[in-house]
Amino acid sequence: MKTAYTCFCTDVIHEGHLNIVNEAKKYGRVIIGALSDKALIRYNKFPTVSQEERVKLYRSLDGVDEVVIQDDMLYDDVISLIKPDFVVHGDNWVTGPEKTIRNHVEELVKAYGGQVIDVPYTYTEKVRKIDLQLREKLAMPEYRRKRLRDLLKMTPIVKAMEAHSGLTGLIVEKTVVECDGKLDQFDAMWISSLCDSTAKGKPDIELVDMTSRFRTIEDITEVTTKPIIFDGDTGGLTEHFVYTVRTLERLGVSAVIIEDKKGLKKNSLFGTDVEQTQASIEEFSAKISAGKKAQLTDDFMIIARIESLILEKGMEDALERARAFVSAGADGIMIHSRKKDPAEIIEFCDKFRAENKTTPIVVVPSSFNTITENELAEHGVNIVIYANQLTRSAFPAMQKTAEDILKYHRAKEVDDRLMPINQIITLIDEI
Ligand code: SPV
Ligand code: MG
């Protein structure tokens, strides 16, 4: 008997999936590939049920003969194992970023006489509603909050991108690219103090108060589902930090990163060009412990950021602080550097990992930007944060447009660089 293979990555079965199974049945024995968590998070929305539950769900469907795990969004392994006569998929993969995957599958199956069957994609009002409900569930604080811990288990390196508004949040949420035949997207959002302050035309010195920073979080959570890592600056007074922890948990934030500085905080990228004071190990450890004690959920993470390399206090100081802050209860360590060469970051990560195998390491490669995500992961880094690149790309583009309109006394000359009007008005989803 011939075999028809289809890959599912859904948490909920609707008429579209049943239609695919019914179509596949016409061609032979139906085998469903359940896309693994690891592959799914690069490709699609974050799962709301476990891989095991998805397998069980697909197995329960009428007309399904077998369910296997597909561990990669590329079909190579599964096709060489099963050699299906037919690969059945919704025709939504004929265009857009998934097109490369489809064409690759076609090449693979054609080699032994197989065929790709594109089934018309079902997009009814009911399907649209289910999609929206799933998205809403992902956006809920109790689901969003625990997602960073989940991601740390699912992927070698969690990729976070800066967001400081609803619009930048949407960019992080929705940007998907096809690269080397695979799809990729960001895992999380970083609410940078630098970019949140810059967007308000204010310096990055803890001047934008927490109430305003929380408002930014709400602007972002209203239109996105991805987990949030919040830049908590120094955390402020310990007596205030404990309240911040509670509010962040309630808002569905996954982690706060606080840095071991005190007094007037300046941006780390100034380094020793400005006066900045590091808190003592005892003071900062007490702040971490108080935060951990105030925390109510098991999901939330307090990550300690070490400024020893920024302030040129040496590698030993950085490592000593890392040990102390982990002992004080920190759920992760962020190590920062403003050197162009990643050598000191690599040295720290290698030394820290030699003595601590599990505590997540976070880095922000703004200055040492030549190092790739894979290289960082090889040195034990778990979270990479692209902290300010959206703001830094938007500002020069806006400034040039303003200058050119002044120069030409009209907007025609800048028009080629602008997003078309019909695109900007449909950028935001309507309910
Ligand atoms: C931020 O994005 O605000 C940060 C990272 O704290 S850095 O600007 O590199 O200090
Ligand atoms: Mg900051």
Report on this structure.
By secondary structure, the chain is α/β, with parallel strands linked by helices. It folds into three domains: 3-125, Rossmann fold (3-Layer(aba) Sandwich), CATH 3.40.50.620; 134-387, TIM Barrel, CATH 3.20.20; 393-425, no CATH class. It contains 18 helices and 17 strands. Helix 12 packs across helix 13. The longest helix has 20 residues, at 389-408. The chain binds sulfopyruvate (SPV) and magnesium ion.
Number of helical segments? 18
Apparent shape: globular
User: Structural class, please?
Assistant: alpha/beta
- Helix fraction, binned, reads 40-55%
Straight-line N-to-C gap: 46 Å
What's the structural blueprint in terms of helices and strands?
Elements: E1 3-8, H1 15-25, E2 29-35, H2 37-43, H3 51-59, E3 66-70, H4 76-82, E4 86-90, H5 99-110, E5 115-119, H6 125-139, H7 141-145, H8 147-154, E6 158-162, H9 166-174, E7 176-179, E8 182-185, E9 188-191, H10 193-199, H11 210-221, E10 228-231, H12 238-251, E11 255-259, E12 261-262, E13 277-278, H13 281-294, E14 301-306, H14 315-327, E15 332-335, H15 343-355, E16 361-363, H16 373-378, E17 383-386, H17 389-408, H18 421-424
Parallel strand pairs: 1-2, 1-4, 2-3, 4-5, 6-9, 6-17, 9-10, 10-11, 11-14, 14-15, 15-16, 16-17
Antiparallel strand pairs: 7-8, 12-13
Helix pairs in contact: 9-11, 11-12, 12-13, 13-14, 14-15
Bound molecules: sulfopyruvate (SPV) and magnesium ion.
